[in-house]
């Protein structure tokens, strides 16, 4: 073997190149035929997964019991999409042994990013419950850094913590509209404990309930505020939390929901590059941005269903144009209301 292949950095570079080129068959062959390549190749192959099925298939075949295509109520049911596009249902014959768990965790520990859409990768809550029983003391995905979930259903909402770990720094979760408010609120409030190093927080389609606003606010208070760079949460905040939110020192991307006739504290967000705000009343909240130094801001988005839209563009220019005239490149305003603004752009080139 060439001496270069004894250098771990070179092996991992080759593994990254193969993974990036989608040459998974070659990577698997190398991992299987040569111990030198095994660890680097497996690390890259498992680094990012777009469904849970491959990880669950790491359990031995004899642990599973196939039920066919007819749904069978089982305390441990799992649905696997088959290559033929038929849906086959499987169940654990029994709870996996410690040795079988240890085998599956060899692969689970390699995952750094999980992108799962529960509408396409339907793992039932009963199977998640079994996984949860085995991971009470240790995270199932101990090195996961990024979790992206879509269509989190009512039944699966309680199991989101199953996928998180102390190394998770980025979460992007979209909830089904039927997700139970109390369960979602409880999960949100636990996030800083489960992931103390959170830097990027995105939560979509949250129920507009006071208990959710309280949970989101508590989450913000408990986060490492110096670490937060993205906070895009589809929920209002309490007054106390707004004072914290609009002064996060490292915040770069934000989405805020301003419900009712609210004013904002004076904004101090020197690193802000993207603003998104949804509001439903008057424009008093804009005054919070007056005098703010936003020299890095390049994108703003506003969304409203307010009947009285008013002269938003002029109000925006009066408050913000001086600080962002030279940096702003994107301006979006969304509304389903009839609106015919007389003023076309607050950022005309000087004549």
In words, what does this structure look like?
With 351 residues, this protein is α/β, with parallel strands linked by helices. It folds into 2 domains: 1-47; 48-334, Leucine-rich repeat, LRR (right-handed beta-alpha superhelix) (Alpha-Beta Horseshoe). It has helices at 8-20, 24-33, 35-47, 53-56, 98-108, 125-134, 181-194, 210-222, 239-245, 312-324, and strands at 48-49, 64-68, 77-81, 87-92, 113-117, 146-152, 170-175, 200-204, 230-233, 253-258, 274-279, 299-304, 330-334. Strands 1-5-6-7-8-9-10-11-12-13 form a 10-stranded parallel beta sheet. It has a 3-stranded antiparallel beta sheet with strand order 2-4-3. The model is unreliable at 68-88 (pLDDT under 50).
